[in-house]
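The methods section describes the discrete structure representation at length, but only in general terms. What matters is that the chain and its backbone geometry are given together, residue for residue. Nothing conveys this as quickly as seeing an actual entry. For illustration, here is how one protein appears when written out as sequence plus structure tokens:
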Amino acid sequence: MKTPQPIRSAANEEDDLTIARREYDDESVVVVVDFGRGVEAALDILGDTVIVVAGDRQFEFEVPDDDTEFTTNEGMLVITEEP
């Protein structure tokens, strides 16, 4: 699973946005996107589009075809892909 392009692009341009990728023994893959200190993230999925609002930034991207779950936790976007 790749981090969605709009978020990767923002991470390349902004120092406060970080992306961490973890792979676990049960083969699940977790990507955590931290939008910076004190920034709250909200998530909505409309049809085939994921919308993430983090502070004054908005990111939109298509839901991937694989079995992927999107959640937020303490202001971070968590993307989990199960085997």
Summary: The chain has one helix and seven strands. The domain at 5-81 is CATH 2.60.40 (Immunoglobulin-like). The first strand starts at residue 18 and ends at 23.
